[in-house]
Design a protein that fits this description.
Number of domains: 2
Strand content: under 5%
Number of strands: 2
Distance between the termini: 23 Å
Shape: flat
Oligomer: single chain
Radius of gyration: 23 Å
Helix content: over 70%
């Protein structure tokens, strides 16, 4: 049983706390969050070799994804899926760029690693102000958000970014033009791709939230399913600008499944009326 709460929705210990008490509690929570993020960042920073191996692995044809595509190509007897051997050279022209790139990458990876701890700390701060029913309902939602975001980041790293980089990094405007990709450009696309895929995978949670407040419904999402398929294919084509349809499907199918999951978790108008 949860703690008995008054009509204002706050637990007894929360109602007894003043504004400054809440502010002090928030300050300690944010301090613990900062310590968790900093600890993970420092850990990543001093594991430079593993960090760089993970980040720069997609820049040549020995990456695990490319090898898997070649095995799949041989299995399906589809030669276009296996990439030719390649190695894109990264170029740095700024004196301090490698050091700051190392720090930035460590911070981003540290944030990802500390995300579960950060969410738990924030949850412990907010939870006492919620009704027991709200607490019980929000726990699986938070867990789902974490899992979906992590799945999106992993898909971005193991599929979307390698496929896009293979095409863009080896594409030549002319035989006399040598591709030497700038380090900053590589890292910016790397961060953007992983973050974008993480956010895209939050689509079901967004659909659930919007349906709860009445902005969308299950029927609306079903009605525009065909339009969504076209949009997903266009996004997939932009993300992976390659010529083979199988690569397009590898990216588009997960996004379509996310849309179907969004329909499943969204509330119908009938459910909204009964609530």
């Amino acid at each position: 049983m949860g703690k008995q709460q008054s009509g204002d929705g706050a637990a007894p210990e929360q109602r007894d706390m003043t504004f400054w008490d809440h502010l002090e509690a928030l300050r300690w929570v944010l301090l613990r969050v900062a310590v968790a993020v900093m600890a993970c960042t420092v850990l990543v920073f001093f594991n430079k070799e593993r960090l760089t191996q993970a980040i720069f692995a997609p820049q040549d044809s020995n990456f695990i994804v490319y090898r898997a595509m070649c095995k799949l190509s041989a299995l399906l007897h589809f030669d276009g899926l296996c990439p030719d051997e390649f190695a894109v050279e990264l170029l740095n022209t700024r004196l301090a760029s490698p050091f700051f790139t190392h720090m930035t990458a460590s911070l981003y990876v540290g944030l990802l690693l500390s995300l579960p701890v950060v969410i738990v700390l924030l949850w412990r701060f907010v939870a006492p102000a919620l009704y027991p029913r709200e607490r019980k309902r929000s726990i699986p939602l938070i867990f789902s958000c974490i899992v979906l975001f992590a799945a999106g980041v992993l898909l971005g790293y193991f599929l979307v970014f390698p496929l896009a980089f293979r095409f863009l990094g080896t594409y030549q405007f002319g035989a006399h033009v040598v591709n030497r990709i700038d380090l900053t450009s590589y890292m910016n696309i790397f961060y953007t791709t992983l973050l974008s895929m993480g956010l895209v995978f939050e689509m079901p949670m967004l659909a659930y939230t919007l349906s709860r407040i009445g902005l969308v419904s299950k029927g609306m999402l079903k009605k525009y399913r065909r339009h969504a398929v076209v949009v997903i294919l266009v996004i997939g084509a932009v993300i992976t600008p390659t010529s083979d349809p199988l690569t397009l499907m590898l990216v588009s199918v997960p996004m379509y499944l996310l849309y179907e999951l969004s329909i499943h978790v969204a509330r119908s108008k009938k459910a909204e009326a009964e609530a």
